[in-house]
Write a structure and sequence with these properties.
kinase, 4-stranded parallel β-sheet, alpha/beta, Carbamate kinase, 10 strands, cytoplasm, Uridylate kinase
Length: 220
């Protein structure tokens, strides 16, 4: 949303594209899972009386809209991309096929995964981890509004303490909120590390890929 009340802020989109281009130019293979909360949240719809399954499918379509917007922004900056979706919509995107995604990455294309897992009751966090495992990703980079994992909500408590490194086990023991439980457990079981960082700070994505201590690393 950027500074808007809802929808897609072209300025924020261009900023993200610039951040992604920096690591793309370094030769990093990039696959992206994008949310849809700026357009519609299935959980919010359900709490307002909408059928949860219907709401979740609407949320999945919102992620495809965001995926198309990001795809356009990336290609405007000269990057080659492919949008793959868990729900079939061949007029605008490829269906998700692991081998095809692998091939795109090998060829240096950025792959955007839309429509979550294609199933209701699963978040885009879970979709990100699932796709990460399938394509043998080295790490999940979770871009958020905060600069890492804290012992309590830093937006509500100014004295919150940030962790630079923390184990999966300690996250569970302390009851910290990194991802939804399904996504987090899937990442833990498959030993796929997570880096939680502030996506809105210019240069963070590049610094992470260059090995700098940015955000919080969650690992075994």
């Amino acid at each position: 949303m950027g500074d808007l009340q809802y929808g897609i802020d072209p300025k924020r989109l261009a900023e993200y594209a610039d951040e992604i281009k920096q690591i793309h130019n370094k030769g990093v293979e990039i696959a992206i899972v994008i949310g849809g909360g700026n357009i519609f949240r299935g959980v919010a719809g359900a709490s307002a009386g909408m059928d949860r399954v219907q709401g979740d499918y609407m949320g999945m379509l919102a992620t495809v809209i965001n995926g198309m917007a990001l795809q356009g922004a990336l290609e405007e900056k000269g990057m080659k991309t492919r949008l793959q979706t868990a729900l079939k919509m061949e007029s605008i995107a490829e269906p998700y096929i692991k081998r095809r995604a692998d091939r795109h990455l090998e060829k240096g294309r950025i792959v955007i995964f839309g429509a979550g897992t294609g199933n209701p009751y699963f978040t885009t966090d879970t979709a990100a981890v699932l796709r990460g495992i399938e394509i043998n990703a080295d790490v999940i980079l979770k871009g958020t509004r905060v600069d890492g994992v804290y012992d309590c909500d830093p937006e509500k408590n100014a004295s919150a303490i940030k962790f630079d490194f923390i184990s999966f086990e300690d996250v569970l023991k302390k009851g910290l909120n990194v991802m939804d439980t399904t996504a987090f457990t899937l990442s833990q079981e498959n030993k796929l590390p997570i880096v939680v960082f502030d996506m809105n700070k210019v240069g963070n994505l590049l610094k992470i890929c260059e090995g700098d201590n940015i955000g919080t690393v969650v690992n075994i």
